[in-house]
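Human:
Class, as today's exercise, you are to examine the entry below, and be ready to discuss the fold:
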Amino acid sequence: MVEKSYNLEYLESISGGDQNFVKDMVQTFITNVPEDINKIKNWASMQNWQKAAEDSHKFASSLLFLGLDNLKNIANTIEVLGIKNEGVDQIPSLIDQLEKGCYQIINELKRDFNV
């Protein structure tokens, strides 16, 4: 059995066992993540650290649904650096890590949910 990088416990607990709800949330994640990451990347490319921080904050909550604590921590770091406007030279590398991790999760979800 393949080890999963995500955890559906939270989604299953709020769904009351409704597997269609879980699948819908997974599909929403797969659809929205590329757009969300691109927003953060675009703000960073314009060196608008405040907007990058705001969008990272919003994005972090979607990572919680799938138990992606390590990726949530990266998004939170982007947020903190952007808000403080300190260490912003680290943000592009952090975004790359976030993007790579999210696409790995998307590929796993597509495989596991046949979407």
Q: What stands out?
A: Residues 10-113 form a domain with the Four Helix Bundle (Hemerythrin (Met), subunit A) fold (CATH 1.20.120). The CA atoms of residues 16 and 22 lie 10 Å apart.
